[in-house]
Amino acid sequence: MDNTGNLVGSLGDLCRWLAGQAEAAGVEVYPGFAAAELLYDEAGAVRGVATPARGRQADGTPGPRFDPGVELCARQTVLAEGAHGSLSQEALERFGLARGAEPQTYALGLKELWEVRPERHEPGAITHTLGWPLDAFTYGGGFLYHQERRQVAVGLVVGLDYEDPYLSPYEAFQQLKTHPAVRPLLEGGRRLAYGARILPEGGWQSVPRLSFPGGVLAGDTAGLVNVPKIKGIHTAMKSGMLAAEAVHAALGAGAAEAGDLGRRLEASWIAPELRRVRNIRPAFRWGLPLGLAYAAAEAYLLRGRAPWTLGHRPDHQALRPAAQRRPIDYPAHDGRITFDRLDSVFLSGTRHEEGQPSHLRLRDPQVPARVNAPRYAGPEVRYCPAGVYSYDTDPGTGEPRLRIDAINCLHCKACEIKDPAQNIRWTVPEGSGDGPGYPNM
User: Fold this and answer.
1) In the chain, which end has fewer C-beta atoms inside a 10 angstrom radius, N or C?
2) Separation CA 52–CA 69 (nearest Å)
3) In 3-state terms, what secondary structure has residue 199?
4) CA distances from 81 to 72, 78, 89 (A)
5) Are 206 and 101 in contact (CB under 8 A)?
6) Per-residue pLDDT, 432
7) CA of 439: how far to CAs of 15, 273, 417, in Å?
8) Over 300-341, what HEC string results?
9) Which CATH class is domain 32-103+204-276?
10) 0.90 exceeded by the pTM?
């Protein structure tokens, strides 16, 4: 976890710079267009992707300005969608890529960008926290990164394998900012931006097969994050290089699948780095004290040589019934250091075209009232960091009814992962560039 000599900066700025470098090398970049659908050939291999159709009405029927999606075909398609990408999930299921691997597990990261007073700013300074305000059986911690231009990124990462249905990651993040080690840094400052996104935390045992007929997986899509080190950019970039080499070799050989990508990953420095820390994250399911003790044993004694590998369970299975927990009384927002969710969503720059079908869909509209509300006290209201979900009363039946304000969605994917009934399906919005607009997060 030594960060001496590392660089602190904006990943958004880095990606924009990289896009310019790619275009200068002859790569065509299409910002604002999502990949909404995988395309298959007669043999069942992936032959490319399609952008979403546009101009549908709220009920899903084509409107007067309907425009079908555009097909982008390729001999090899690299899926690098980030954690829990919708097309990647389809490929994992269709080709059985996760067969034999442990279930992927995730965390929800919430982040704000602040402009602080000059005397409080220490460019390059990093602070990591563990635990508070989370309970001893919820994995997570906070971070403070001092960037350039008096900007400080502050955030909280919460493992989505938490048990308490009353836990609100957003409210816990606001509470973190009231800690005596954090509040003085932010007082007198100005909040500039807000965002949220999931992170893959399964580690080496959750890495799936990386190739399939017509394409490969790379980056966070493959779950290549070193959780104890709290780093994944380096592994994502390296996996992209390995994917390029494997695809190039497959194209040269006329092969339908870049089948040696897994071997290339095994032979790289990614494999020993992730294998060495594979047991640290799952050990924290025993609680913070035992997790820390085991992490120390792994870091200083075992060094990844343990003859066992700890497993995972899907995050949605961890939630306990509300009857086994008590509601959490979070502090009220003061409007200076802590803020409500809708104020934060405004700072995220989130936008969605009006009138389009909701990209958040329920497989069974009756499940929230039948399962989530009575058994888990409506956890959607709390695990969503954007206030997308709320409950009102159905005037016809008098029962709880789930309301979905998809226009607020930050595209974090936490709902699809944490929903205890696995009833929520996240799909790509049809609007061009819909979603959060992070300028320098």
Assistant:
1) N
2) 5
3) strand
4) 16, 9, 10
5) yes
6) 65
7) 11, 32, 26
8) HHHCCCCCCCCCCCCHHHHCCCHHHCCCCCCCCCCCCCCCCH
9) alpha beta
10) yes
Contacts with 268 (C-beta within 8 Å, 6 or more apart), sequence order: 238, 242
Whole-number Å distance between alpha carbons of 111 and 12? 13
Region 11-34 average pLDDT: 91
The token pair that represents 436 in the structure block: 């959060």
Range picked from 9-23, 28-42, 55-69, 414-428 for highest mean pLDDT: 414-428
* Cα angle for residues 196, 218, 161 (degrees, 5° grid): 45
Task: Average the pLDDT over 237-256 and give the result.
Answer: 97
pLDDT bracket for residue 5 (50, 70, 90): confident
- Report helix, strand or coil for 354: coil
**Spatial distance between the Cα atoms of 327 and 348, rounded to a whole number of angstroms:** 28
Same fold, 32-103+204-276 and 107-193: no
133 preceded by a cis bond (ω within 30 of 0): yes
Q: Do residues 153 and 112 lie in contact, with contact meaning Cβ atoms separated by under 8 Å?
A: yes
Q: Where are the alpha helices (DSSP H) in 54-195?
A: 86-95, 169-176, 183-186
Residue 397 and residue 387 in contact, taking contact as beta carbons nearer than 8 Å? no
Rounded to the nearest angstrom, the gap between the alpha carbon of residue 287 and the centroid of all alpha carbons in its chain is 23
Do 288 and 129 contact (CB within 8 A), yes or no?
A: no
Closest CA to 35 of 91, 81, 96, 74: 81
Res. 35: pLDDT tops 70:
yes
Give the CATH architecture of domain 107-193: 2-Layer Sandwich (3.30)
pLDDT recorded at residue 173: 98
Instruction: At 191, list the tokens.
Output: 């909040």
Cα 251 to the chain's mean position, in Å? 32
Q: Residue 100's pLDDT is what? A: 93
Q: Measure the CA–CA gap between 273 and 1, rounded to whole angstroms.
A: 13
Mean pLDDT, range 312-323, rounded to an integer? 96
Contact 156, 108 (CB under 8 A): no
Length in residues, the chain:
441
Lowest mean pLDDT among 66-70, 301-305, 405-409: 66-70
- Comparing 166-180, 230-244, 322-336, 346-360, the range with the smallest average pLDDT is 346-360
Tokens, residue 292: 């820390």
Q: Is the pLDDT of residue 107 over 90?
A: yes
